[in-house]
Amino acid sequence: MSEWKKVGTQADIDSLMNEFCGFHDGCIVSVNYSTGSFVDKNGKMKDGEESDKVLCVSFDSQAVKKKLELRFTGVRSFGFVGWQKGCFCDINGCYLNIDSGLIIWADGEDFSPENPISLINPQYSYVVSSSLEWNLE
């Protein structure tokens, strides 16, 4: 397994986008979310810390022919578009930005965090978190 790379600057974003061809001809393979929450042996709810809220997203790509994993930590919110009739699962490009100390990723280049996201008919999968690391194999 190769080394995890942290995203914290525009140069880091540019490096990830370059290595994974801007997510073009990619697809989401799997998603795994851990909250850090649990009920202890006394029946008390434990919420976990910010760093316990971890979302891992795995991707494949026809363009790169490698697997990418994104690991979001300190997850604030996320949403994934599921199956939709007449739609294909490929990603043509993505939005990746650092805004007010938060990482924002979406599977559409024209995603705008300023526009409200429709929960009834979502257009993009997205993640908002306090940090992001990536690994390409």
In short:
By secondary structure, the chain is mainly β. It contains one helix and nine strands.
Structural class by sheet pairing and helices: mainly beta
Radius of gyration: 16 Å
In the residues, how many domains can be counted?
Answer: 1
Largest sheet: 7 strands, antiparallel
How many β strands by DSSP?
9
Terminal residue distance:
7 Å
Average pLDDT works out at 90
Helix and strand element order: EHEEEEEEEE
Helix content: under 10%
Q: What's the tally of helices? A: 1
What tags apply to this protein structure?
137 residues, mainly beta, seven-stranded antiparallel sheet, 9 strands, 42% strand, globular
Describe what you observe in this structure.
- This protein is mostly beta strands.
- It has one domain (5-136).
- It has one helix and nine strands.
- A hairpin with a 5-residue loop joins strand 3 and strand 4.
Topology:
Blueprint: E1 5-7, H1 10-19, E2 26-34, E3 38-39, E4 45-46, E5 54-61, E6 68-79, E7 95-99, E8 102-106, E9 126-136
Antiparallel strand pairs: 1-9, 2-5, 3-4, 5-6, 6-9, 7-8, 8-9
